[in-house]
Amino acid sequence: MTCEELDALVSAHQAELYRYLRYLGAESPDVAEDLVQETFLAAFQATFRPPGNEPRRMAGWLRGIARNLFFNYCRRRKANPVKVDSEALEEAEVFWAEEFLRDEDGFEVFEALRRCLDSLEKRQRGILQQFYAEKKSRKELAEFFQMTEDGIKTLLRRIRSGLGECIKRRLDGQRATPQ
Amino acid sequence: MSEQQDRLIEVLLREELGQERPPSLNKAVRAKASEVLRLRRRRWIVLVASSAAMVIAAVGLFFALRQPPQPNTAGTNEQNPPPQVTDKPTEPKPNPTDQRGQIVKAGKTSEHLTLGGYANLELSPYGELKIAGAPNAEAVVLNRGKVSCKIERGHGSFDVLSELGKVSVTGTEFEVMLRQEDGEHPPPPQFMNVHVKVGSVVVHGLGGEVKLAAGEEGGVAIGTLQETIEHGGGFTLKVKGMTENRRFLARWVGGNPDAGGGLDKVMIEQIKACKPNAKLRVLWRVDEHASRIIKLESAE
Description:
The complex is a heterodimer. Chain A is built from eight helices and no strands. Chain A folds into two domains: 3-100; 107-176, Orthogonal Bundle (Arc Repressor Mutant, subunit A), CATH 1.10.10. Chain A is mostly helical. In chain A, helix 2 crosses helix 3 and helix 5 crosses helix 8. Chain B is α+β, with helices and mostly antiparallel strands. Among the domains of chain B are: 97-214, Jelly Rolls, CATH 2.60.120; 219-298, CATH 2.40.50.140. Chain B has helices at residues 3-16, 26-65, 265-272, and strands at 103-105, 111-115, 119-123, 128-134, 137-144, 146-151, 157-162, 165-169, 173-179, 191-198, 201-205, 208-212, 217-229, 234-238, 246-250, 252-253, 262-263, 279-287, 290-298.
């Protein structure tokens, strides 16, 4: 692989790999960033590559490398190990490929999420805004909304669940009535 | 809700609301790859040098030990026959100059064309194009539908032109698709979508240009502004010939947020200045799962 080919590979796949590693459980942006770099270096040095440059096949190959690197990373971290096993990682890959990449690059899922966010109740949107955008802790949210921390945790999970259902409905609807 | 779904939504929310953008790692990866290459080269130099030293030693030993050669009395040279010379000419490549100016219309099935011996095209069913260009600078004008192009490197340039802009390449594989209203004599196309499969292309439009690499998408759109998106800095456009409104967002500039990166403020101001139902022309590319505005102008 030449440096130009590596550049093109990085440009085409870095965003998805970063997102994928965060989804697998990379606990911080820094860890995900390091693993993405290691993934591309391993691909650069690999003696075997999938034939052709078909983006979907290349993406699958790179995700496989990233998954192995993440697994090794989890095993190395003895002090505070991230609980993960190869079976769980394979299940996560299947979900990613079938649900997030159903339109090849996840564009439709993002679009659906944006629309679902627009349709949320004001209070739910406010909680998400404070937690994800303003980076407030669960404790701060609990004080603000006069709830317990566990209550906030459950509420956030319930909102995410609702968003997941909303996204699924929209995507299934789009599939049923293609443009 | 499954654990995987919860984690996926969590990641998407961090990105959508928390502005946790996937970083640009090209420079870092390239630096590490160069280091790998340097080490690999050094290893090769050591290997080649030691091999050369062994060969020199072996050759020296051979000459030191070998007997003086016997004279050759046979006078034949059967083991090294003279090279065969053939006068058979190489086959010339097809010359399509007589096709220039010709309009190609695909029927129910797609049409396959080869221009200049290096540009292989597939025109989608009911598509229409005109052959243009010159030798080693082949070009087509796409009037309708989609054309998939596979251009062999090293033979010349290739352009796809349309009412909306131009796509220039030197060696790659890509698709150009136009969207317009149906009918016997439809109005000019309002939407051009370029999808690169291999290599890279440059899309020219609105007096600007955008380079697309393998796997990337972009193009030109003309439409009527429906709704301004304040949160993300963007808008939706109603494009003739498309059933759903198309969403465009300001692009991200300046790297990571901690390095001062953010949505293009100049573009956000330009978007704010647009009035409802304004007719706009957009040069765009897909970045971070959204169609990002590279250039914007009024199409009134």
